Amino acid sequence: MRILVSADMEGATGVTWPADVEPGTEQWQRCRAMFTGDVNAAVEGLFAGGASEVVVNEAHATMRNLLLERLDERATMITGRHKDLSMVEGIQHDDCDGVVFLGYHCGAGADGVLAHTYLPNAVTGVWLDGEPASEGRLNAAVAAEYGVPVILVTGDDRACEDAATYAPFARTVAVKEHVSRYTARCHPPARTAGDIRAGARAAMVLAGRLDPEEPRTHAVEVEFDAAHLAQAADVVPGVTRTGVLRVRYTSPNAYEMIRCFKAVTTLAARAMEEDYG
């Protein structure tokens, strides 16, 4: 049983505000250890539940946040930004039997700790086939196309509620409770490690490849907080500006859907100015 852990940081233990996840800050250095602790707890639980291999894919920002020197020695880690499937790199191979979304969060426009979708603020809403889409929903669509079940989701309580809409059979572990976008009632690492470990072990009963979903057309809408960002995204072939702040595109499958989404958000990010966005 080979399990992939897609490890994001905003939903990790103790993380509540931007400095906690911005590379180079003092708070980020502190939170990296708790983030790594969450990952290790998941790795321990997965092996205890019967996993034979665990691959951790770094999925936050620079994708160089986890402390490799503290990683459980039984795991391996994919680190670095330029990957075909970004947050779920590795799921496209035929030997993946389950995926864990660790440290996940709610999507742009939702009410959750550090809620966003790819870009911290500029994206105000994303819809996949008409449904509000968090990063979890987007990545779950990719996983389904490869026949890989989402077996566990960790994050704040709102992220766990979101997971129920796109991975209803997955186990969930809330490491903190939402108060506001930058405030949470947090459980200490000693407790969350135990909860994640137990959740991961129990989640292994869900592991096992499924029949891949037949590739189908996906429609994605993205709303920005400024008109020039929609203008920038409109440069991507196949992306159409549907309003002052919105763009839309369709893709023949989930693989192309997530890759186009990355292109749209990357171009929008490059179009932002320091003060005005």
What does it look like?
A seven-stranded mixed β-sheet has the order 3-2-1-4-7-8-9, sandwiched between helices. Strands 6-5-10-12-11 form a five-stranded antiparallel β-sheet. The protein has helices at about 25-50, 135-145, 155-165, 190-205, 225-235, 255-270, and strands at about 1-5, 55-60, 75-80, 100-105, 125-130, 130, 150-155, 170-180, 185, 220-225, 240, 245-250. Helix content is about 30%, strand content about 25%.
Keywords:
277 residues; alpha/beta; seven-stranded mixed beta sheet; 6 helices; globular
Topology record:
Layout: E1 2-7, H1 26-48, E2 53-58, E3 76-78, E4 98-104, E5 123-128, E6 131-132, H2 135-145, E7 150-156, H3 157-166, E8 171-180, E9 183-186, H4 189-203, E10 218-224, H5 227-233, E11 240-241, E12 246-251, H6 254-270
Helix pairs in contact: 1-4, 2-3, 2-6, 5-6
- Trace the largest sheet across and list its strands: 3-2-1-4-7-8-9
- N-to-C SSE series? EHEEEEEHEHEEHEHEEH
For the sheet with most strands, the description reads: 7 strands, mixed
Shape label: globular
Q: What structural class results from the helix and strand content? A: alpha/beta
CA distance, first residue to last residue: 45 Å
Helical coverage, percent range: 25-40%
Number of strands: 12
The amount of beta strand, in percent, is: 15-25%
Rg of Cα set: 18 Å
Low-confidence stretches: none
